[in-house]
Design a protein that fits this description.
The protein is built from five helices and no strands. By secondary structure, the chain is mostly helical. The protein is elongated. It starts with 5 loop residues before the first helix and ends with a helix.
């Protein structure tokens, strides 16, 4: 795809969301990121519980430092939980799907099949 094609880029920016929403694989991939099961809620509840436990059990006398350490630990646990959730995603990444939809749309744009 030529990056010099400003007409397509303008058309893509106007129609991007509509074209992506028409793609079933994209809709399915996006839906896997929603909180749809108890396991999802558990994965995102674990960092909150970790933060609460850390703030009460870290043996640092400086209050600000204790909060900072607790925040770092909570963010790290959250990142691990997001990574675990992403491993359970059976679809390709959203960016790959979006790239394929854009490539197909560009081909349609060149052949005049655009809507």
């Amino acid at each position: 795809m030529k990056t010099e094609d400003k007409g397509f880029e303008e058309w893509w920016s106007v129609n991007k969301q509509r074209l992506l929403n028409e793609n079933k694989e994209y809709r399915d991939a996006v839906s896997t990121y929603t909180m749809s099961s108890g396991a999802d809620w558990l994965l995102f509840g674990i960092p909150v519980a970790t933060g609460i436990i850390c703030i009460q059990s870290i043996p640092i006398s400086n209050e600000l430092l204790r909060w900072l350490v607790c925040l770092i630990i909570t963010v790290a646990v959250f990142a691990i939980c997001v990574y675990v959730k992403s491993l359970s995603n059976p679809h390709r990444s959203i960016s790959e799907i979006e790239e394929d939809v854009k490539r197909q749309s560009y081909e349609d744009y060149l052949t005049g099949k655009r809507e």
